[in-house]
Description:
mainly beta; Rieske Iron-sulfur Protein; 4-stranded antiparallel sheet; 3-stranded antiparallel sheet; 10 strands; binds FE2/S2 (inorganic) cluster
Amino acid sequence: MNESPGPSRWISLCPLDEISIGRARYLEAVDRPLCVVRVGETDAAVFDDSCPHAGGPLSGGHVEDGCLVCPLHQWPFRLADGICADTSVFRVRKYTCRVRDGVVEMAAPESR
Ligand code: FES
């Protein structure tokens, strides 16, 4: 899930161990609500916190079969790319992230 540094600067989000494996947490950074998912012992993924179906808080969801499952209507969004595994039409924005020294960091997006 971690990706190589791009041209962006890195922004610290939160310690990985503040999130249970397979769960997510809400936080705000770069002027937007984010969903930080703990994928395993050492991996994370970062998405917009708004579900593209009806705006559900993805940070209240859980990981299942390689997807982040929305808590409202259980649509699954692939951790790899944010595409809805059921419809492939809907997609949640995913941000480049990494875990360094136990802290989840995201690459500053170049534009919204
Ligand atoms: S709001 Fe997320 S599945 Fe409906």
